[in-house]
Prior knowledge:
The structure holds two protein chains of two kinds. By secondary structure, chain A is of the alpha+beta class. A six-stranded mixed barrel of chain A has the order 2-3-8-5-7-6. A six-stranded mixed beta barrel of chain A has the order 13-14-19-16-18-17. In chain A, strands 12-20-11-21 form a four-stranded antiparallel β-sheet. In chain A, helix 27 runs antiparallel to helix 28 (871-888). The two termini of chain A are 59 Å apart. In chain B, 55% of the residues lie in helices and 15% in strands. The longest helix of chain B is centred in the last third of the chain and has 25 residues, at 76-100. The interface between A and B is medium-sized, with 25 and 18 residues.
Amino acid sequence: MRKWSRFWQRSRRDADLRRELDAYLEHEAVNRMADGMSPDDARLAAVRKLGNVTRIREDVYEQNSILTLETLWRDVAYGWRLLRRNPGFALVAILSIALGIGANASVFTLLDQVMLRPLPVDRPNQLVLVTAKGFQYGPAWGDGNELSYPRYEDLRDNNQVFSGMFSRFRLSVVMSVGGSGERVRGELVSGTYFPVLGVAPAIGRVFDPSDDSPPAGRPDVVLSHRFWQQRFRSDPGVIGTAIRLNDHPMTIVGVAREGFHGTNLGAVTDVFVPLVMSAELTSLTNPLANRRMRWVNVFGRLKPGVSAEQAQAGLQPFYASRLAFEVEQDAFEKAPARDKERFATGTVEVTPAAYGKSELRAQLMRPLWTLTAIGVGVLFIACANVANLLLARASTRRREMALRLALGATRRRVVRQLLVESVLLAVAGGAAGLVLATWGARGLLAFFADADVTLTISAWPDSRILAINVAISVLIGVLFGLAPAWQGSHPEVAPVLKAESGGVVGGGYARLRKGLVVAQVALSMLLLVGAALFVRSLNNLLMIDAGFDAPHLLTFIVTPGSNGYEPAQTKTYAKALLARVRAAPGVVGAGFASNPLLTGGSWNDRITIDGRPYDPDRRPLSHNNWISPGYFQAMSMRLIAGRDFDARDESHVEPGSPALPRVVIANEQFVKQYLDGRDPIGVHVGFGANPGTPTPMEIVGVVSTAKYTTLQSQPQAQLYFPYFEAPSIGGLIMYVRTLQAPESLAGSMREAVRQIDPRVPLDDMRTMTEQVERSLVNERLVASLSSILSVLATVLAMVGLYGVMSYTVARRTREIAIRIAFGAVSSKVAALIARDMLALVTLGMLLALPAYWWLNRYVRNQLYHVSPTDVTSIATAVGLLLVAATFAVLVPSRRALRVNPMTALREE
Amino acid sequence: MLLGTLDMLVLRALLFGPAHGHAIAHVIEASSEEILQVEHGSLYPALHRLEDQGLIVSFWGTSENNRKAKYYRLAPAGRKHLTQERSRWESLVQAVSRVLGPSTE
């Protein structure tokens, strides 16, 4: 500590010392004068007695300074001056590094938040997801990782491996605070949710296990912190406010702490509601007691010292006993023995869930790693450029280095100074790169039209990334500056100082520099081919025939059921809305459906077909939708046989009753796949997969096949049911066909919805083209980014090529001069240069081959209908690279052509 | 001068009260009866070192001829250090004498 204060004060101490020494001299002189000496002689004698004042001051000064810091600072100052005197060199180097680091930091900012950050809860490493494996029996909501609520309760109350468990279900609800309604993102959670996660309230209270019992009065609601800030302007008076969710009265009792958005990254929650309200808020029947319906995600917190595997093993016996119990219940009455057997041998699975359960994460995993790999490639090319530049400069400074060595500098000192220069460049580049990164990250986020994503993921690199950035910059500076520094500190001192011949401007280290350029070309080649492949793949996807006329469709969602409408009222509403929409100007057709398209999921069921023998291994599965009359026309789907739904198909059905629609329309794929050449009209079908299932529904029409879950999926067998014969549906998805631009209808649609009932909100309005693009967000992200980055990489590599080619031309000036003097034509000279360039580029491309082979299988499953060895893509990449290389060597070749043999040969 | 002896002499010189650099130099010369000739310049790095080690403390004061001079005085740690060094020096002298044997003159 004292060492540091001495260090900072050394100039002051030096001044002090000078005064002290002056005092001594005076003293001594006075003494001598008292002895009778003359003032001048006395002064002289005093000085002699003291000794070398400068040396005394130096000794003390050195005592006070920290030598390494001193010299380091001097190196930095020197390096800074040097860079300012060579702005061109500095600029290119800094820009290269900035681009390389910027690209990586942008991707990493996203990667970090999506893949590398556990949930912001207490000890996330103890969290696990509990799922059921094996044959299930009964309907499911979600992606198959759900359990039924009774089964959750069983596990919660009968385990020794968890210190707590909770369950949740994502739900969109309509919230009204005194007046109009708005759609908000809700999450049904068990009372144990907040305690087990360890999320405390910011104000008010959060749920506790008492919230698992039916509420005495109005049910409680907890807001998320972000929603409280945005929607309620952080008003603490919000506690106790009465609101309505889906027309049910509730009370806000608290706000969760800041930073907590739920357990699903990329999907924010606005309001948390107790699970016991599920019957009221969802369209599920008897969700809390129905053992056959799987709908909740179940999480557990492991007891300290218990691993996920141990927990899984520990739960099996109890789980098996529950299965044995369930299989004896009434629900399995009609099940075939084989199904019962398969059911009873199901198992429970416990998987780590420190990152929660996120669809966004699963979806983005592969593209983000691909982009990271690309980013690293760009960084390497950028750094190779800098290394090349440093090598070039090192050779021009050979005299300076030789001089310093001759004057007594140690090699280590010289190397250190050169390293300081390269680190300075790298750090400057790193800082610039960070600025680029924020733009880059924002650009990446712009791909996600979902507001949810941009809410939870920020474009700003956090302090960790900043620290990593600094560390990597310094590392780059050292790594890529080391070879040039080492080379630079080993000039042959005597010959260089004597300025002997052979010294070419920018010369030296030829092989190393050429090697670097070859590596750069190889990497660029890989990146270009990759980009070409991704672009072709995206193109293929965009050209898929969706089966409906996406460019002319506008879609939106309304859910009157969330505003308290009974099913019969919903149907009246739907009819009124349809009529109004059809009457709007510009609309040439409209229809609606119950389930959305291109979201990756569908309502699907096992189907029993009359006349088709029961085969337990080939049970028909159909993807289903309730639709209105006019739906097919709006979507421009073709009616191939039979009829569309019309006014006949509106039988009155009691809400909640098990009655089924009487008619159904199948698509071509269904007919092809399951009807074995029979005439489909008149065939009867029924829901369910057990033998002996009744088949009361009659096929009255056949339509063309359209995409349902995703664009890329194979044609799926689908069944359409008449909306107006549905027992109860809370909402509908309207599709409006127009020959104008679909966006232009947005205003009139809002107006139509508002006119019927202003309390019912209109949501998710977009054109079907947007919907298609949303479903392809991954592919668009990767295609765009890999294109941009590969072009960037190629430009950087070409800068490197330019540098090396300039050097080559300069080195061969004598040879060229001689050839010209002997009558060589300019084309011959150009051919000379071209040969050199081609050698480098071809070598690079060949080098890329083995790497390409290896990366093949990794890239293969990200491509759609494009083989990794696609000739067009490879040819495009090769062509682009050759064109770019030609541009890069234009200037050096002009220089070569302009060599004047007289002047060139006279210079040595 | 053996390394470290200069430090010891300086501390000894300050034992009887504070003094400035010039005075210290002359005290050392005088009490050794001019046998120990100190290059006065080498005193100052030693003074600085001793001060950084906390064995002496400096302050600016007025000298005999009414000029400003930097004075040094012994710190408690310095006093203790002196005692330790003195006993170590004495055992060293005894050891060397034993090795050399009694004087044979």
